[in-house]
Amino acid sequence: MTSTSNIPKKRTRKSRGSRKGFSTGANAAAAARAATVGLLTGKIPKVIDCLLPENNQVQFKVHASSLKNNQAHAELIKDAGDDPDVTHNAVIAADVKLLEGQANTFVLKGGTGVGTVTQAGLGLEVGGPAINPKPRQYIEENVRIAGAKLLKKHGLAVTISVPDGERLATRTLNARLGILGGISILGTTGIVHPWSTAAFRASVIQGIEVTARQGHDTVVLTTGGRTEKFVMRELPELPQSCFVQMGDFLSYALETAIEQKIKNIVIGGMVGKLTKIAQGETMTHAGRNPVDMNLVASLAKEAGAPDKVVEEIKQAETARFGSEKMKQLGIQMPFYNALAKRVIKTLTERYPQQFNLRILICDFEGNKITEASQNICEASTRQKNTCEKKI
Question: Which of 35, 273, 313, 334 could form an SS bridge with 297, CB 3.0 to 4.6 Å?
Answer without folding.
Answer: 313
